[in-house]
Amino acid sequence: MTANQADSQELLLGLVARLKERGETLATAESLTGGLVGAALTDVPGVSAVYRGGVVVYATDLKATLAGVPADLLADVGPVHPDTAAALATGVRERLGATYGLATTGVAGPDPQAGIEAGTVYVAAAGPSTVRVRKLALSGDRAAVRQGSVQAVLELAADLVAEELA
């Protein structure tokens, strides 16, 4: 196990433990990560106590129909935008009945999409009182961009859960 993998595992264990202690839950809406966030979460023993589930909304129309992103928002700003990420996180939180919703959307590459460079990613976490979005400019191949997105959204979730504890 690399140092990065150990850090990721520690992050996940801490996030799951905090949610368990508080009786809170988590749901995911993933685009470019295609289920990798859910897979990372479900690698953690005992996560079934906190992980409600997730949706993979790779196609733009599914972001609206499954994750609750307003269709007019998608028409105005497109699928790779901070407002779309926030709406994905909020929508999955509401639709899956979770305390927190996480979302990933972006361009994994190798080519740009609709004028947006590969490696441009937005991750979001929505809680009971706060929605946070981070823009990422990731480098590397498709796998590196996707893995960096997973790590970033889990870090954002851990930060938000810790802040909402206070």
TrEMBL record:
<feature type="domain" description="CinA C-terminal">
    <location>
        <begin position="15"/>
        <end position="159"/>
    </location>
</feature>
<dbReference type="Pfam" id="PF02464">
    <property type="entry name" value="CinA"/>
</dbReference>
<dbReference type="InterPro" id="IPR008136">
    <property type="entry name" value="CinA_C"/>
</dbReference>
<dbReference type="InterPro" id="IPR036653">
    <property type="entry name" value="CinA-like_C"/>
</dbReference>
<protein>
    <submittedName>
        <fullName>CinA family protein</fullName>
    </submittedName>
</protein>
